[in-house]
Design goal:
single chain, about 600 residues, alpha/beta, 23 helices
């Protein structure tokens, strides 16, 4: 946006401007095609600015640019990034080494990207203090290290510090990454979706840590995320990005209560509602990629308010109120329509429908082991025809293990009965008939490990079609195009490789691959944890439609309790390898009986 976003630059301590970004432009090299253009923002001391938008909207590219860094194939073509008046983009490499990790720090989405798997965590934490010459002695640095660990609620004893990253849980790894980022008490910190793959309880701890440290040290924080529920509970102000441009900025309350850009309004309608009153509404279509963006406003093809003027030129910055800016030709008309009119009530007919007597999947008294350790303890559950059963709980509660036992992917000992349509299932998927393998399809949590990086998207989608169907070449191409369109991906991606897609696009591809097999039972293992809210809503709408129209049965593994309302009829809450509470989704979430269920609900962020 333009440099008109200068509210609050007075010198009162709580409103001191720490980070000032003006006209930032990042392009593909050497083509010069815009990735991000005309990005401006201000962040004050002790303030959190949430940067939200769909996958591939350019959020991470902006975040890394604040450290004057870009991935291969991109370069910063213009603009200013000032920290306390110093332009980072004008510094030489030697000066930048002192700034990175000192004055400005970065926490990546995947904590494993910031932790060296070959070094103990204590050594890694000490290294960052030594690199920036923190304190005047080893004793000063050791004292700071102990303080860092206490700040992120981790032990600082020698036994814990001698652990390697793989010996920590995902939440512990992320808190170590945050400790490293705050180690030298930076002035600015960039947090790039640090809680995306964490369960709600761990996420609540991490967000509390970020909030407390930001306020305690007066850090200016940029929090990049696609989860607007997180932003609602953390950010002071919000900037909304679409197709490489900031389209609206304002305080949290201004944007949630009176968003004036159609994209902002549609994002808000995509947020899962744990109360169960609102229906999820995805945004049809997809955001245009660099080089494919139309003239004028890029949101025009997906906008209900578009007029001819929207296609002719990109709108200028308009001030709705002091500090609330928007770039939309029709922002006054959008703002005049009450946000309440965007709300669509949830159809409760599916959840109210009585359970079928016929069970597709039956699990009776199943105990599973990892090597010699018992990790599931006497699980009994059932999945009925055309129903969705959600498994919820913290990381390590046994959700994925149970799902993998049903899918035939658990490599260790299993005791008990698992049946499909009344017939016993072989423990190993390779021992099951082809029809059974087609009927039970599994979508994995991480698209980075479930997609072959050496195969094109067309080759990936063609695999299940070749295994389970006898199709001509044209029929196969039609099926692949339809599978991509069902998950809001463009057929032009067929010739690309997974590494040319964003994280959210990769997960959509993984979902499309499973749907291409036309399964009877779909096991979804945290399939939306990598997706932005609008695509998440579209995927949930799609899965609900498949369940309704095709008689699909689903086992939905998730840590997002707000999603459970939108997709499930039944829910089973797991903790420490046991089901502690189960029943109809409305009954369990509205009147939980188990203390553990109550805790999960209290930790779930809501708008």
């Amino acid at each position: 946006m333009e440099t008109t976003i200068t509210e609050g630059t007075a010198t009162t301590p709580e409103r001191v401007t720490v980070l000032n970004v003006e006209g930032l432009r990042i392009v593909l090299d050497p083509s010069g095609v815009d990735i991000d253009d005309d990005v401006s923002m201000v962040i004050h001391r002790g303030e959190v600015l949430g940067l939200v938008g769909e996958s591939a909207s350019g959020k991470t590219t902006v975040g890394t640019s604040l450290l004057d860094y870009q991935r291969r194939g991109a370069k910063i073509a213009g603009g200013r990034v000032e920290i306390d008046g110093q332009d980072i983009l004008a510094m030489d490499r030697a000066a930048l080494r002192g700034i990175r990790g000192g004055s400005i720090s970065y926490v990546p989405q995947d904590s494993s990207a910031s932790l060296n798997p070959a070094l103990r965590i204590g050594l890694q934490l000490m290294e960052i203090l030594e690199a920036h010459r923190f304190g005047s002695s080893t004793a000063d640095r050791e004292a700071r290290l102990a303080q860092m660990m206490a700040e992120v609620l981790l032990p600082s004893d020698k036994a814990f510090l001698r652990r390697y990253p793989h010996q920590l849980s995902g939440g512990q790894q992320q808190r170590v990454a945050i400790a490293m980022a705050f180690a030298n008490r930076p002035k600015v910190i960039v947090l790039d979706e640090p809680t995306t793959a964490l369960d709600v309880t761990t996420q609540a701890h991490v967000l509390d840590t970020v909030r407390d440290l930001t306020k305690s040290y007066g850090v200016a924080a940029l929090y990049i995320t696609h989860d607007l529920a997180v932003v609602a509970n953390l950010a002071d102000r919000i900037a909304v990005m679409y197709a490489g441009k900031v389209v609206e900025t304002g305080t949290r309350d201004e944007l949630f209560d009176a968003g004036h850009h159609p994209y902002t309004r549609k994002l808000l309608a995509s947020i899962p509602d744990i109360t169960g009153e609102r229906a999820l509404r995805g945004i049809p279509g997809w955001a245009p990629r660099p080089g494919q963006r139309p003239s004028g406003c890029s949101f025009t093809p997906r906008c209900d308010w578009a007029v001819d003027e929207c296609s002719e030129g990109f709108p200028p910055v308009e001030q709705v109120s002091p500090g609330h800016n928007v770039r939309c030709w029709r922002y006054k008309e959008v703002g005049a329509q009450l946000a309440a009119t965007d709300i669509q009530l949830r159809d409760k007919s599916l959840s109210a429908r009585e359970a079928q007597d016929d069970q597709v999947i039956s699990v009776r008294d199943v105990t599973a082991y990892y090597q010699n350790k018992e990790i599931l303890h006497g699980i009994t559950a059932g999945l009925s025809e055309r129903r969705c059963l959600s498994l919820v709980g913290e990381s390590g509660s046994g959700k994925t293990t149970l799902a993998r036992c049903i899918a035939g992917l658990h490599p260790h000992k299993i005791v008990g009965d698992i049946e499909f349509l009344g017939r016993p299932l072989a423990r190993d998927a390779r021992g099951r008939p082809r029809a059974t393998r087609q009927a039970i399809q599994y979508i994995f949590q991480s698209p980075y490990s479930s997609l072959n990086p050496r195969k094109t998207i067309a080759q990936i989608l063609s695999q299940p079609l070749k295994v389970f169907f006898d199709l001509s070449r044209s029929e196969m191409e039609d099926r692949m195009v339809k599978a991509l369109e069902d998950v809001a991906l463009d057929s032009s991606l067929l010739s690309r490789y997974p590494d040319q897609l964003s994280g959210g696009e990769r997960q959509r591809l993984a979902i499309a691959r499973s749907l291409a097999a036309e399964p009877t039972v779909l096991i979804c293992d945290e399939v939306t944890s990598w997706l932005d809210v609008s695509v998440q809503a579209a995927i949930i709408e799609l899965l609900a439609a498949l369940q309704r129209d095709m008689g699909l049965s689903m086992l939905f593994v998730t840590h997002n309790l707000a999603l459970v309302r939108s997709i499930s009829q039944e829910v089973a809450v797991m903790n420490d390898g046991r089901i502690v509470e189960s029943g109809p989704v409305d009954a369990v979430l509205e009147d939980p009986q188990a203390d553990y269920t109550k805790k999960l609900l209290s930790d779930t962020p809501t708008v």
